[in-house]
Amino acid sequence: MKLALSLIVAALFTISGLGLSTSGAADGSSLVLTKCTSCHSLKRVCRGLGKKDLAAWEKTNQRMADMGMTITADELDAISNYLANAKPGESPVCK
């Protein structure tokens, strides 16, 4: 009975779009790999890890958007949050 109830609840969350998301660092890193590397090398991005806080990354990334990077506000936030929390030398950005 508990299993059936759990499956029903999980199905309802999935159908309604309220399921838990696996966004965050994984999405941020994949966005860095696709968006940032369209103009910059990973080496350049990697050099900035651990040197800028969230506000500095937001300013930098907004400047990139203003220069023509095609990106949504949510993607911009995900990239800034990822880069602000990534450690120097961290994979996959710093291979």
UniProtKB/TrEMBL annotation:
An example Gene Ontology molecular-function term: electron transfer activity
Signal peptide: 1-25
InterPro entries the record matches: Cyt_c-like_dom (IPR009056), Cyt_c-like_dom_sf (IPR036909)
Keyword list, A-Z: Heme, Iron, Metal-binding, Signal
Domain (Cytochrome c): residue spans on this chain: 23-95
Organism superkingdom: Bacteria
Keyword Phosphoprotein: no
Protein name: Cytochrome c domain-containing protein
Upper classification of the organism: Bacteria, Pseudomonadati, Thermodesulfobacteriota, Desulfovibrionia, Desulfovibrionales
